[in-house]
Write a structure and sequence with these properties.
The chain is α+β, with helices and mostly antiparallel strands and 550 residues long. The protein is built from 14 helices and 23 strands. The chain binds flavin-adenine dinucleotide. Flavin-adenine dinucleotide (FAD) binds next to helix 1, strand 6, strand 13 and helix 9.
Length: 550
């Protein structure tokens, strides 16, 4: 029962509920945009449990933009696992390998993707990644309230212009209300916020796992190998062994059936037996650090928004771990949403811009869930019983990481129609509206940067070397609309180190590309238009949901 004498804790622009990867990322991206935000997390501390171990290249690009790329790479697990790659199968770790995951769609985490991205995979486990993000959020001034649980949300305030959240301090029992302009629900797969909004979360359960975190020196059985994961199939165990430091810290994902094996049966003693069986070392004495149940499911919320409330991360979608897309998809949600909230709160975008969050992230998330499911089902072939080729709908890893495209009110419709591809994925985006602005190596003021480093807090107009008319137009449009807009000339103040600007962005020396703060191409003009200023103004108005203005 809620107390009737609640005090108001704070009024904020954005309240973030949940201090997992998605919530912490949201807080960091919002704070980078200068948005006043408060994060509440019901646990007294971050979970610290390793869970996901990989941050994929697009998510690492976003971590780079958050200023924490090097910090993540310096974390213990990221340093120690920096050279690991490959997935193998075996009867046990000590036994001979039975096979390797060697499919065309798999791109090795160590593959050189320097032409595609300024960064690459980081094999940093989730507990350490959350620590980095927490530190960054604190340095940016985000108020983080642990041990604080959201009880309910009310959007019925005067003229529906705010959200009232009721929270409880779990240490003292005190209940407070927080008034916010928007609320971001990053409260995980069982999101109470999503349920209170009545948003369906349909899908399928693919399996049940117990995630055992243990310590045991398996250096001898690892035998100098450096795989990412070893699927283990024997009479006692079906699961996957994953190194966390290549010597004595490991995860064992165990498949279990909750119908026949209650969770309580996974006592430390039984977990130790299963670790011994997976390692193939009968005399091993592992220290069991924790054992957490985990349901592998595939679900996408039927809407990522309910009024002033937005769902991000597992609250919006869950997927099996195959492919390592889960947590990285949540980080991308957070990044897509943060600049939009900031632009609306600062008044330079119409609230209509916020509609594009669901329009963009839901289809791409659903397609990512589908890819994770296809991979998960494909892994069955690893135990050697199936000889069928991989499912034809599985697209290459690199496409899932980098080559989605959005179709929404915040990007212009594609000028040349759909290129060849598969659903939301295409290898031929080449700077088309709705796709990620391609990586381009540039020289700026004597230092090498990526084109991606130019994007962040405001829209950017990238032009070729002949950009006088674009500069004039940008100055005028920025002033008329009261919108910050940066202009960079590739071939003038920026040197195109590989001479790839026209090819990668699909424009001539007279053309221009408008890139959103989240590094997504909003619009492009292949050549010089007749009315540069009007053309640019229309593109900006569309991007910001302001097309009704004139
Ligand atoms: C054991 C385990 C193993 C996993 N392994 C993998 C893997 O190998 N690969 C992979 O990609 N993914 C894996 N996942 C999934 C991955 O961890 C998730 O995708 C990721 O954690 C999602 O982050 P999130 O921030 O959206 O949600 P969560 O990490 O679930 O965070 C939600 C947070 O919200 C808080 N919260 C909930 N309700 C409230 C409330 N009312 N008030 C305040 N706070 C609240 C919770 O305490 C929690 O801290 C695994 C998950 C688990 C549990």
């Amino acid at each position: 029962m809620l107390s009737t004498t609640r005090s108001t804790l704070r009024n904020v622009d954005v309240l973030v509920v949940g201090g997992g990867l998605a919530g912490l990322s949201t807080a960091v991206f919002l704070a980078q945009q200068g948005v006043d935000c408060l994060l509440v997390e019901r646990q007294p501390e971050l979970s610290g449990h390793p869970r996901a171990r990989g941050v994929h290249p697009r998510a690492m690009e976003l971590m780079r933009s958050a200023g924490v790329e090097q910090e993540i790479r310096a974390m213990p697990s990221a340093r120690l696992l920096a050279g690991n790659s490959g997935v193998v199968t075996a009867g046990s770790l000590a036994g001979p390998e039975l096979g390797t995951l060697d499919e065309k769609y798999v791109m090795d985490v160590q593959a050189d993707i320097g032409l595609l991205s300024p960064t690459g995979w980081a094999l940093c486990h989730q507990g350490e990644l959350e620590d980095v993000l927490r530190g960054r959020a604190e340095r940016l001034g985000v108020a983080l309230r642990f041990n604080t649980e959201l009880l309910s949300v009310d959007q019925e305030g005067p003229e529906g212009e705010e959200v009232t959240a009721y929270v409880r301090d779990r240490a003292t029992g005190a209940e407070r209300e927080i008034k916010a302009r928007y609320l971001v629900a990053a409260d995980g797969a069982h999101s109470g916020v999503r349920q209170s909004l009545g948003i369906p979360f349909d899908g399928e359960v693919l399996g049940h796992y117990v995630n055992v975190h243990f310590r045991a020196d398996l250096t001898e059985q690892f035998a100098g190998r450096r795989f990412l994961m070893c699927y283990v199939f024997n009479e006692q165990v079906r699961g996957a062994l994953m190194p966390l430091n290549n010597t004595d810290e490991w995860l064992l994902h165990l498949v279990y059936d909750p119908e026949s094996e209650p969770l309580e049966s996974f006592t430390p003693q039984r977990c130790a037996d299963l670790v011994r069986a997976a390692a193939g070392v009968p005399g091993l004495a592992p220290e069991i650090l924790s054992a957490s149940p985990w349901e592998s499911a595939a679900r996408t919320a039927s809407s990522f928004r309910g009024g002033r409330v937005f769902l991000v991360g597992d609250a919006a979608h869950v997927m099996p771990p195959s492919g390592g897309f889960g947590s990285s998809t949540g980080i991308q949600d957070a990044h897509n949403l943060a600049w939009k909230l900031s632009a609306v709160i600062d008044g330079w975008a119409d609230p209509a811009l916020l509609d594009s969050y669901d329009e963009e992230r839901r289809p791409v998330s659903a397609a990512t869930v589908e890819q994770a499911v296809l991979r998960s089902k494909d892994r069955v072939r690893l135990d050697g019983r199936e000889q069928e080729p991989a499912h034809p709908d599985i697209v290459e890893d690199a496409l899932v990481w980098l080559s989605w495209r959005y179709s929404s009110s915040a990007v212009t419709p594609w000028d040349e129609g759909m290129p060849a591809g598969h659903g939301v994925w295409s290898a031929q985006n080449h700077g088309r509206p709705g796709s990620r602005a391609p990586h381009l190596r540039l020289l700026k003021g004597g230092s090498e940067i990526s084109a991606l480093d130019l994007f962040g807090d405001r829209p950017v107009l990238l032009t070729g070397p002949v950009n006088g008319p674009w500069l004039d137009a940008a100055r005028a449009v920025s002033h008329e609309l009261g919108v910050p807009l940066a202009v960079y000339g590739v071939g003038s103040e920026l040197t195109d180190l590989d001479d790839r600007w026209p090819e990668l962005y699909g424009v001539t020396a007279q053309g221009a590309v408008l890139v959103r703060p989240d590094g997504v191409v909003a619009w492009r003009c292949g050549d010089a238009p007749v009315f540069t200023r009007n053309t640019l103004r229309s593109a900006m108005e569309r991007l910001l949901g302001r097309h009704e203005e004139r």
